[in-house]
């Protein structure tokens, strides 16, 4: 089972990271949230949308010559400026809600990571480090 960790930013906002059962960080919030409640809604959205994307094959591979566009929610797989594979999870409303902290050298690596997000975000434990 995965684990979401909520942290406070230096400006007093909130963000989250998602860790797999093996304690590897597999996703971070694509944005900061002004309230903890909004941050928790963002985490819930990651679980719901990631699972739906995998179940319904909503993975838009932008690394291909011919891109087959998918409707939101969806994962987008793309190359970053360093030429590494990355993904972003986009919610039904078109907002980016999660992405990896680092790029991947192989497409299989990024694909395994986004599948891990879908598995680990559902019913994940929540650790609130803002209470410490």
Task: Give your account of this protein's structure.
This protein is an alpha+beta fold and 132 residues long. It has two helices and eight strands, in the order βββαββββαβ.
List keywords for this structure.
single chain; 132 residues; PH-domain like; eight-stranded mixed sheet; 8 strands
Q: Give the CATH class.
A: Mainly Beta
What is the N-to-C order of secondary-structure elements (H for helix, E for strand)? EEEHEEEEHE
The whole-angstrom Rg is 14 Å
Number of strands: 8
Number of helices: 2
Q: Assess the beta-strand content as a share of residues.
A: 25-35%
Helical fraction: 25-40%
Structural class: alpha+beta
Q: Which stretches are low in confidence, meaning pLDDT under 50 for 5 or more residues running?
A: none
Strand order of the largest sheet: 4-5-6-7-3-2-1-8
Spatial separation of the terminal alpha carbons = 23 Å
Mean pLDDT score, rounded?
Answer: 94
Q: What composes the largest sheet?
A: 8 strands, mixed
At CATH's second level, what is the architecture? Roll
């Amino acid at each position: 089972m995965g684990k979401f960790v909520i942290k406070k930013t230096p400006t007093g906002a909130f963000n989250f990271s998602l860790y797999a059962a093996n304690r590897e960080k597999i996703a971070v919030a694509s944005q900061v949230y002004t309230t903890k409640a909004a941050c928790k809604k963002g985490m819930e959205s990651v679980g719901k949308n990631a699972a739906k994307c995998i179940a319904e094959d909503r993975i838009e591979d932008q690394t291909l010559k011919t891109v087959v566009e998918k409707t939101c929610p969806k994962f987008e797989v793309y190359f970053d400026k360093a030429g590494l594979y990355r993904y972003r999870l986009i919610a039904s409303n078109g907002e980016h809600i999660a992405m990896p902290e680092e790029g991947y050298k192989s497409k299989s690596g990024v694909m395994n990571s986004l599948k891990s997000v879908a598995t680990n975000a559902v019913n994940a434990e929540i650790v609130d480090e803002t209470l410490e």
